[in-house]
Write a structure and sequence with these properties.
This is Phosphoenolpyruvate guanylyltransferase. InterPro entries: CofC, MobA-like_NTP_Trfase, Nucleotide-diphossugar_trans. It is built from eight helices and seven strands; from the N terminus they run E-H-E-H-E-H-E-H-E-E-H-E-H-H-H. With 216 residues, it is α/β, with parallel strands linked by helices. The longest helix is centred in the C-terminal third of the chain and has 18 residues. It binds guanosine-5'-triphosphate and phosphoenolpyruvate. Guanosine-5'-triphosphate binds next to strand 1, strand 2 and helix 3.
Length: 216
């Protein structure tokens, strides 16, 4: 089966990322990096993924994710998530004009390659489509076929906004790892139950060890 999708993954500077994981304190940048590393690794292992472009201005994340095989581009517009995604998609299509492009969040540490392949296979049947997050209000994947503008509308209530923009909702079961984005401590606990990648597992275990030590 051809590896036809070019993914675009936005990533904030690590010092600013995942602010809702406030209980993690100083571990927050390390966790945000671990989520992104596990997400990139799983995405690149997915059978329908040709390449992953990470849009980030973070030098450490750029180096680490580049070492995993991601293509790194700076956040040219520096104007928030949607301009970063549109810019990343433009850089893909400047090289590969007929590419199918999908935006994927960098905070999916439980991502399974086979589940992502199912989502991308379903997305083939629509010019533009999306997958809702576990919470049911957001979006974790927005996909656009050849020649179709990505037109990202992530942010508050993005499920509804992507639907209103004419994108088809992918109503799949059994793709929980692709829906499970991690914003809060509760989200992280739920991702750990699903099973996270090795870097998130290590970063989370280190946090538990430290908080156990501080309770003694
Ligand atoms: N390049 C880039 N990526 C962004 C920007 N804003 C958000 N992202 C990324 O977009 C994805 C979804 O964003 P959020 O889930 O809101 O993540 P976040 O902004 O780190 O989390 P909070 O601080 O809790 O809002 C994550 O992978 C973020 O790192 C931005 O301005 N530029
Ligand atoms: C930006 C979004 O996600 P989050 O819930 O991670 O902020 C979104 O779902 O559009």
């Amino acid at each position: 089966m051809p590896s036809e999708w070019s993914l675009v993954m936005p990533l904030k500077r690590l010092s600013l990322a995942k602010s809702r994981l406030s209980a993690a304190g100083g571990r927050r940048p390390g966790l945000a990096l671990a989520f992104a590393q596990d997400t990139v690794t799983a995405a690149l292992a997915s059978s329908l993924v040709r390449e992953v472009t990470v849009v980030t201005d973070d030098p450490v994340a750029g180096e680490r994710l580049g070492a995993l095989g991601a293509r790194i581009v700076p956040d040219g517009p520096r104007n928030g998530l949607n301009p970063a995604l549109a810019y990343g998609a433009d850089t893909v299509r400047a090289r590969l004009p007929t590419a199918s492009v999908a935006a994927l969040h960098a905070d999916l540490p439980a991502l399974r390659p086979s589940e992502l392949a199912r989502v991308l296979r379903a997305a083939r049947h629509h010019p533009r489509s999306f997958l809702a997050d576990t919470a049911g209000t957001g979006t974790t994947v927005l996909a656009a076929g050849p020649g179709v503008p990505l037109a990202p509308a992530f942010g508050d209530a993005s499920r509804e906004r992507h639907r209103a923009s004419g994108a088809a909702e992918l109503e799949l079961t059994g793709v929980e790892s692709v829906r499970r984005d991690v914003d809060t401590e509760d989200d992280l606990r739920a991702a750990l139950v699903l099973g996270v990648g090795p870097r998130t597992a290590a970063a989370s275990a280190e946090g538990l060890r430290r908080s156990g030590a501080s309770r003694r």
